Amino acid sequence: MKWSRSFCGFFSLVAFALLPVIWSVAPVSAQAVDSSSAVVDDWTHHHVFFSDPGTLTDAMMNGKREEWQRIVDDPRYRLQLMKRSAANRAQTGDSAPTNAEDTNDNSSLSRDWNVTVASAGASVAIDMYPAKYTFAPIATPSCTNDFVVFPVSSAGSATRANIMGVNNLYKTTCTGTVPTVLFAYYVGTGRVRTSPVLSLNGTKVAFVESRGSGASIFHVLTLDKSGNAGCATSTTPCNGTVYSGPAVPGTHNSAVDTKVTFSGTGNINVTRSSPFVDYTHDVAYVGDNTGVLHKFTGVFNGTPAEVTTSPWPVTVASGATLSGPTYDSVSGNIFVGGSDGNLYCVTSAGAFCSTKSIAVGNGSGAAGAILDAPIVDSTRHTVFAIANNASDAILSQSTTSLGSQVKVIMGKRGNSLYDGTFDNLYFTSVGTGHMYVCGNATTGTATPVLWRVGFNSNGTIDTANDGTSFTLASAAVNCSPLTEVYNTSTTPGTDYLFVGVSASGFATGTHNCGGTACLASFILPTSGNSVPTAANATMTSTYVGTTGPSGVIVDNVSGAAGASQVYFGAPTLNLGVQASQSALQ
To answer: Residue-wise over 345-359: b if at least 16 C-beta within 10 A, else e?
Structure first.
């Protein structure tokens, strides 16, 4: 079923007719009403996807009315639909914004801006993400309301924030200092080592403060976005352009920081697991470094608290370091990877699924662990994870009951592996789509290689990659997770793929990494089966640092110059960076 029929039909007949009813019965309604046109992009939106669910009529004819409703009730589906329906308008020839910047795919490379986050090595880690709030994603961007949140992976202090946000983001559209410090908070002496999650209306942010001793702390921070939260004292000028040091929430500002200490005894450390918020039920899940999965309620709409009545917290894999958890609203299951190389399934009630776990990696060192949160396609009932076994890089697809596992070899065993992503074709018609993955070479040194694998019409992954590859580096180094965005500023649209390498980036082609750490973009085919044979643009170590970029988040698409952007951290440069989608300039 093509996107142009089912998604456009759904959007026109259901999204506008039924959406008020859908939101009126969900606990998240207050946020949804306040932010009906806004888009949030954080790490969770890169791990839950919805391939085409068809129309309501299709669902009723196939006896899947209830399942279809669970999909369209999911706020992340609504956000994906907003982005992809804009893509559909461009594909079908309807008017779409134009952006001269985004048509210039061969520009020289630099960056729009960078902002100092903290000391060297304290910006967003290679496998973590900042978070972005866009008030009006396909209209004129807001210099006041749009903002980006960067976590700080170094100890907080009176002179060092744990979490920081900037607005006035868009070069050539916004005026004055670009960007502007919107808030910078000191919330404790720990480090924010994992990715933050934003509320749908952009008023709150949830994150974990990890401590070297004692238990980690789950924070829900109500933001003061007046500009006062970048000031340490009441006498320092606080107009958003002067940053005198981090503010304490509630001191000289209206911010409120609710803290919940993780249950358990001893050092309950969290270094790999970002919180996943189930918006509909206002619940967050977080894994720790002892193999325990925690559940928090009242996250954005109530009073945050950890559930400590049996069976919560759930010991998933005793002694294992857990990845970020991914919640699937259709099955009601939570999927989490372990440092033992296994993929685990826990129900929202805290029980293990009928199949508790399946093996993906061999658990030998970081390479054999599942480091990244699983990816779920809620429509197709599939879950993906990646890790190395004893000899190969393995991409695993199984059902959301952990059945029918297919393991696809993505080169030989190599360094740490992080998640791939789907191309736009997958959302148009799953059987023509692909997942792109950074695996490794098949022979010789396990250099990182960009691979592609296809699917049949039911969404079952092929048993082997299709042989399409692009060598990303000349040494055995790590890749960042992959990010895709379908930008409709051109017609019929441009499908961008972003991936970073931590060192020794490829030196071939007009746009190359020059043998350094690098962020590269590729333009993916929007029809047919052509493949990228060269990078579209690159940004080298001058702006991504000597260990490469973090995970990349994106704006939606906009017609305003300088407003279709990507955001990431450069850890060794202690920077948060913005660059254009089209040319990384």
So the answer is: bbebebeebeeebbb
Confidence (pLDDT) at 110? 40
The sign of the dihedral angle between the CA atoms of 400, 403, 404, 410 is: positive
Are 170 and 179 spatial neighbours (Cβ–Cβ below 8 Å)?
no
State the Cα angle at 244 between 243 and 250, rounded to 5°.
90
CATH 2.130.10.10 residue ranges of the chain are: 100-580
Over 50: is that where the pLDDT of 21 sits? no
Please tell me the distance from the alpha carbon of residue 305 to that of residue 470, in angstroms, as a whole number.
Answer: 47
Q: What topology is assigned to 100-580 in CATH?
A: Methylamine Dehydrogenase; Chain H (2.130.10)
pLDDT digits (tens, 9 = 90+) for 153-170: 888 888 888 999 989 998
- CA dist 207 and 221 (Å) reads 8
Residue 184's closest CA among 162, 164, 212, 211?
Answer: 164
For 346, residues 6+ apart whose C-beta sits below 8 A from its C-beta are 293, 314, 316, 333, 334, 336, 352, 353
pLDDT digits (tens, 9 = 90+) for 341-386: 999 999 999 999 999 999 999 999 999 999 999 999 999 999 999 9
Separation of CA 29 from chain center: 23
> Is-contact 77 32, C-beta < 8 A?
no
- Identify the DSSP state of 521: E
Q: What is the mean pLDDT of residues 91-97?
A: 31
pTM: 0.89
Give the number of other CB atoms < 10 A from CB of residue 290.
21
At 97 the pLDDT is 26
Residues 6+ apart with CB under 8 A from 363: 338, 339, 340, 341, 342, 369
**Which of helix, strand or coil describes residue 34?**
helix
pLDDT the model gives residue 160? 84
Q: 226: exposed, middle or buried (C-beta count within 10 Å: 0-12, 13-18, 19+)?
A: middle
Q: pLDDT for 457-485, tens place per residue?
A: 999 999 999 998 999 999 999 999 999 99
Cα 129 to Cα 43: distance, rounded to the nearest angstrom: 6
Tokens 């070297």 belong to: 212
Instruction: Supply the mean pLDDT for the chain.
Output: 84
Rounded to whole angstroms, the Cα distance separating 584 from 565 reads: 8
For residue 505, count CB atoms less than 10 angstroms from its CB and return exposed for 0-12, middle for 13-18, buried for 19 or more: buried
β-strands 204-209, 147-151 pairing: unpaired
| CA-wise closest residue to 285 among 395, 188, 374 | 374
Residue 523 near residue 493, CB atoms below 8 Å: no
Q: Across residues 307-334, what is the average pLDDT? A: 97
pLDDT in tens, 34-53: 345 788 999 999 999 999 89
From 182, 187, 183, 115, select the one nearest 156 (Cα to Cα): 187
Q: Where are the alpha helices (DSSP H) in 465-569?
A: 541-544
Residue 240 — very low, low, confident or very high, per pLDDT cuts 50/70/90?
A: very low
